[in-house]
Design goal:
154 residues; alpha+beta; 2 domains
């Protein structure tokens, strides 16, 4: 069961973050009462989101609206054109993780994110074939490594 966090606004609902469960959401550095928390019971949808196959567009009050990022045409399902693209993605991701780690040493999610940072730092970008039709998260999943989506970062 996943928890999606959406901003509350009188005119629209925007996707903010995702959590594997309510326990993880409770450790995010945000007042949860200011957000709309939606439970996603479809584990396949959540996995597709975490692996980058689906993008969350919105919540319409009844259901979560997804956009499929994987299409029948492989030319439109490219995540990374070159190894440099993956390196830049990892660099930006580590900056975000460091922002969390530097300010949250007592957060229960600290070790999880610190370990994931080490996994990212040690990843050999030459292991992917370019252009890559799989996300870095899907590569990790396929190789039984830890998978954390950037929008799970507290």
């Amino acid at each position: 069961m996943a928890i999606y966090l959406f901003t509350k606004d009188s005119t629209e609902t925007n996707f903010y973050r995702a959590a594997d469960d309510m326990n993880a959401a409770n450790h995010y550095n945000v007042d949860l009462s200011t957000l709309q928390l939606i439970t996603e019971n479809n584990s396949e949808n959540y996995l597709d989101f975490k692996l980058g196959r689906k993008k969350i567009i919105s919540y319409n009050g009844n259901s979560i609206i997804y956009e499929n990022k994987i299409t029948e045409d492989p030319r439109t399902s490219i995540f990374f054109l070159t190894a440099s693209d993956v390196t830049e993605y990892i660099r930006e991701y580590i900056v975000a993780i460091d922002n969390f780690l530097n300010k949250n040493e007592t957060n229960p999610l600290y070790n999880q994110w610190n370990e994931y940072k080490q996994q990212l730092l040690s990843f050999d970008v030459t292991k992917l074939t370019y252009p890559s039709s799989v996300s870095l998260e899907e590569y990790f999943y396929n190789n039984n490594l830890t998978v954390l989506h950037p929008l799970q970062l507290p």
